[in-house]
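Ticket #4471: complex job returned nothing on first submit. Input attached below:
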Amino acid sequence: MLHIKNLRVDIEDKIILNGLDLDIKAGEVHAIMGPNGVGKSTLAKVISAHPDYEVKSGEITYKNKNLLELDVAQRAMEGIFLAFQNPIEILGVNNMYFLKQAFNAKCKYTGIEEMTSLDFLKLVKAKIKSLGITADFLKRDLNAGFSGGEKKLNEMLQMSILEPKLFLLDEIDSGLDVDALKSVAQGVNSMLSKERSVLLITHHKHLLEYIKPDFVHILYDGKIIQSGDIHLAKEIEKNGYSIVKDLRSAS
Amino acid sequence: MKLLELETASTKEILKEFLLPNDLLTKTRLDSIKKFQELGLPRIKSEIFSKTGVKLIYQNDYLKNKKSGSYTNIPSSDNYRIVFKKGFYCPLQSNLPDGIKILFDTEPIIKDQSINPFYYLTKALNNNFYIIEVQKDLNVKTPVEIIYLDELYKSQTHMYITLKLKKNAKINLFEKVLIDNSSFFNHTFNVILEKGSEITHVRQQSAELSSNVISNYNYTLDKNSNAKIYSYEDGSDLSLAIWDIDLIGENADIDFTVLQLPKMKQKLNTIVNIKHSTQNARSNQLIKQIINDEAKGLVDAKVIVCKNAQGTKVKQLCNSLLLSDKAGAQAYVKPQLEIYTDELEASHGATVGSLSQEQLYYLMSRGIKEEDAKVLLIEAFKKEAYESFPSWAKEKIDEYQYSKK
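Support reply: We reran it on our side without changes. The output follows.
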C-alpha cells in the first residue's frame, strides 16, 4: 500500500529524515517508536503533504501512485488520514458543517452521490453513539475549547466518517487518561480491516497494548534503524532508548 | 464641478451650480460653505484623513447637477420604505407606518465644532433638509428601509437627514446605499435617541464600484437609550464612513459592528469616535475587515471616556484579515482609548494577519480543496461579526451576495 524509499526531508535547511525506507502492506499495523525529536511526527506529516516540509529526495508511492505529486487534499481523498497529535482549533467553523464538507468532498472525488442532510445526520449520530460522544460535539466549532480527549475523539469521529485506507496516528495517546485512551483505541480497532493499514507513532509501549502492531520500527537519526515485532517495543520499555545508541554504534 | 473647485468658488457660483433654493435656510447653507472653505478639503497633513485616499476624488469632474433621470426599479419588499433619489424624497415609492413621518427640517441641528469638511458640504449643498420623526412609545418591528439611489452619470449628491426617535420609541432601520454610475454621494445622517428609545440600524454600503461614498453619522444617545449598529461595506471605489457617537445619557448603550470587505482596488475607510460623556454607559465595538487583491481598508476607532463618566464599560476589538500578498493591499488599523476617569471597565485589541496555514492544512488534510478550505476560513473570520447582524437584514444581504456570484 505504502512504499517509502530513501526519503530525505528538510525543514528550514535542517535535515530531519535521511535515507528512510518503509513498506506497509494492506491490513498491516506498523508502529514507529523513537526518542523525542527524531522525526516521527515529521514522517506522518510528510506523508500527508504538510507544506513546511520539503522532500529533497527519495520516493513515496501509495497504491502505486506517486504521492509526492498530490497535494494535501488529494492525498486525503485517496484515503490517507492523519490523526493529529494536537488538532488545531478553528473558531467559526462548525464541526457538523465541516464534517459534511469533508464527506461531500470525498463523495465528489470518488463519484458517489452526496447524502441528503438528513441521511448524513443519521450517519453521524450513529458514529458518535458508537464512539461514546455526546451530540453537542456537532454544534461546537471545530476543536474549539475541546479537551485533549475530546480532540482525539473528534479525530476518531472524522476518521470513522471519512473511512480512509491508511491511518497515520501521530501520538494519539498523548495527554489522554486511561479511559480516554481506551475509547480512542477502541475507535481505531473497530475500523481495522484487511484493506486498511495503520502507521502508529508513539513514544510508549502503553498504546501498543490497546492497538496491536504487526511491526515495530525504531526511528533514529532520520532513518529506521531496527524493525521487529511487539518484543522490540517491550525491550524499549524495559531498557529505554539507550539501546538505540548501542544499535547505532553497532551499525 | 470638481470638489477642488468648491474650495475657491464664490458662494453665488456654488448656489447657481447646485440650483439651491433661496429660503429660510439659505443663511445656514452660506455659513456652511464658509466653514467648508475655511477648513478646506483634507490634505496629506490631516491626521484623520491622510491615509483614507479621499484626495483621489478631489479632481473628479462631476457633471452639472440634474434633478431627474431614469432609475433602476427597486425590488419589492414587505418592509416599510423611504426612498431618496438623487437626494430627493420620493413619496410614491415610499411607505411609512402611522407614527413615523418625514418632513422638511426647518431647524436642522447644527454641529459647528466639526472638523469634517464633508459634513459642511452636506449642510451647504443638500436639496432639502429632511427630518424623520418617530413618535413617542411607538414600537415598529417591521424594518424601515432608507434607500439612497443615484444613477445619473458622474453626478454628485449631498444630503442632510435627521432621524429623531422620541421617548421610548423603537425601530429597526435598514439603510441601503445603492449609488451607481461614477457618481459621488456625500450624506449626513443625524440620529437622536431620546430617553428609553431603541434603534437597530443596519447599513449596507453596496454602491457600484465606479462610485464614491462619504457618510457622516452623528449619533446622540440620551438616558437608557440603546443603539445596535451594523455596517456592511463592500461597495464603491472609495468610501469613507465617519461615525461620531455621543453617549450623553446615563445607561446609554451601544453595540457597533462593522464588516468591511474591500477588494480589487477599493479603498474603504471607517472612522469612529465614541464619546462617553456621562456615567454608566456601555459601548462595544467589533470591527472586522477582510482585504483582498490590491484593496485598502482603514479603521480608525477611538473611544473617549470623559472625567465624569464613572462606571463606563468599553470594549473595542478590531480584526483584519489580509488575503492578498499584492503590493497595494493594505490594512491600517488604529484602535484608541482616551480615558479621563478612574472608575471603568475597558478592554481593546487589534489583530492583523493572513489565513492560518496550519488551519488550512488541517482542513485540506480532510479532503477539502484549498479554495474551499479558504472560503471556510474566511467565513469563519466573518462569522463573529456577521452572525450578530439581525436576521431580517442578513437574509437580504445573503440574497444580494448570492446575486453577485
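The interface with chain A takes residues 356-359, 361-370, 372-373, 376-377, 379-384 of chain B (CB under 8 Å). Closing as resolved unless it happens again.
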